[in-house]
Amino acid sequence: xxxxxxFLPVGNGEKSGDAIVMRYGEESNYxxxxxxxxxxxxxxxxxxxxxxxxxxxxxxxxxxxxxxxxHASGLSIVLEELTVGExxxxxxxxxxxxxxxxxxxxxxxxxxxxxxxxxxxxxxYPLEEMAxxxxxxxxxxxxxxxxxxxxxLSPNIYWYLYELIPEFNKTPEAKPTTESFTxxxxxxxxxxxxxxxxxxxxEDGETSADNExxxxxxxxxxxxxxxxxxxxxxxxxxxxxxxxxxxxxxxxFVQVPHHGSRRNVSPSILDKILGDKRQGIxxxxxxxxxxxxxxxxxxxxxxxxxxRGCKVYSTEGNTIMNYHGMPNRDGWSAVTPLEFKEDVxxx
Length: 347
Fold this sequence. Notes:
Blueprint lengths: L1 E6 L11 E8 L2 E9 L2 H14 L4 E6 L5 H4 L2 H7 L1 E6 L7 H4 L10 H11 L4 H9 L3 E3 L6 E2 L2 E5 L2 H11 L11 H6 L6 E3 L15 H4 L3 E6 L2 E5 L5 H10 L7 E5 L11 H8 L8 E5 L11 H9 L2 E5 L5 E5 L18 E3 L2
Helix pairs in contact: 1-3, 3-6
């Protein structure tokens, strides 16, 4: 089975996002899937890309990994300007009777919780409304479901509804997070030296429940394993691995989670997914990072992927493509992978 996976550039300054489009199958029967849409400009870029390079205005599957603006907002343009077969989004407001007891406020009602969740998911809920207007099939992406050839490895429905949703920063009784604050301190951090045999990435990184809810997708095309991670963190990656422990066996392409944040991965989970020894460069890793960002991707994370046999490529203002069995495109050229850096920020 032939395939091509393309990461379009998203964001400016320190803000990054995801806008991914892929095509797979045989020439007479391709399937097209969009995973996240970045902001409005990225959504328009996805529409233009599908029309120009895939010569169609039809997309089989649109998947939103989680409700952050830099992943969900642009999908409204995709739904508006393209014909879509299926929309995959989480809709916690449809499960209020199941989760209401997990919120601390005893005065909250099912209707008020539903309204507050819809308001909190302000970039996702409108997608549901648009899909209903256009008679697009709406599905919820939970562990075990199949999106075309891709299987969802995380989150499972129980973890998502009963643990993650009550922890969300955007929902009632949200728990405070220090993630963005602590991550910004890197500019003041001291420096340390790494090598291929010496790693300083830590095991105790934490990210928000919002990020941990990211849909993790996996497909195996004739022995070429493909893993898309959104902004998933260590908890979600471990759950994905526990669900499918053969994940590393044929892995050839992987998305670096959360634009290369150092708090989303650990040595142990990367050992499970990528392998714990460098057996030569045999995998490709893509990371979506703004061209102007100074913290995406973190060199400590890039090093960790290189150490485990990946060539790592970053968008940084450009569309990048990984493909197998597809023809070369006129005017497109090879991209230089990121280098291993010995001098990195202290964790």
